[in-house]
Amino acid sequence: MLLDRFYNKYIIKGTLIADTPIHIGSGEESFDPVQVDNSVIRDSNGNPYIPGSSLKGVLRSYLETLLISGVDERFNACLIVNEPCLDNDDVKSIKETCKSSQSNQNVDRLVAEEIYKKMCTVCRIFGNQYFASKLVVNDCTLKEDKAYVERRDGVGIDRDTGTAADKKKYTFEQLAAGAKFDFCMTVDNLEPEYEELLKLMINVLKSGELRVGGKTSVGLGCIRLTDVSAYKIEHKNLKQYLLEGLKDEMRWQYV
Ligand SMILES: [Zn+2]
């Protein structure tokens, strides 16, 4: 299903809990000697948050791993960097074929349909350079007014000797375990057969097995989704949703 008209919309809401401390770096290097080397990312109010893009990336790799291992042969996944399901040459030849076809259909839509047909399951849901993502995770902001940010010492490992090198000590910030965030994820125009995959993603979020951010190899970044409420908007309730917002009767039974 393309995204140019409305078929359905899934809305998943809940509370995300940090089961362990989390380190999602701001990516800004500080030149102030008193500052920590690796600060956590903060919003405009100075509060730590979990970027939706981080969570989306984690969900994408989870689904990739699952589908590449052949868990269900109806679904597939490409290696987006090394062996993408679609490249510029494919797109070029699709465009040429569509232009020369005698169909009365709008050529742009035909091209989009053909491209979509060639895409793997994961790219159809999470997007690639030719198609927007159907799945969007909002930035998860803190539920409480404040969160505890701790400073921790890290030790860099010398890559040549494999030993902890004295000169490579550094400080990093981490968000303390127990922090709670608002979670909201939407998926637009999902194929009925992909509903199962969405259920798998909700379940893995609930299981607490996923990790976000950096330093996951030392146990950081465990997140768990709780208080989940899921909704499905379709043609029959679209108008009501637009006028009145989410209602109990729009609930989607995902289990
Ligand atoms: Zn792909």
From TrEMBL:
Sorted UniProt keywords: Antiviral defense
Stored InterPro entries: CRISPR-assoc_RAMP_Csx7, CRISPR_Csm3_endoribonuclease, RAMP_III_fam
Highest taxon in the source lineage: Bacteria
Entry's Gene Ontology BP terms: defense response to virus
Location of the CRISPR type III-associated protein domain: 16-223
Keyword Iron part of the UniProt annotation: no
Annotated PANTHER family: CRISPR SYSTEM CMS ENDORIBONUCLEASE CSM3, DUF324 DOMAIN-CONTAINING PROTEIN
Protein name: CRISPR-associated protein, Csx7 family
Organism: Caldicoprobacter faecalis
Source taxonomy: Bacteria, Bacillati, Bacillota, Clostridia, Caldicoprobacterales
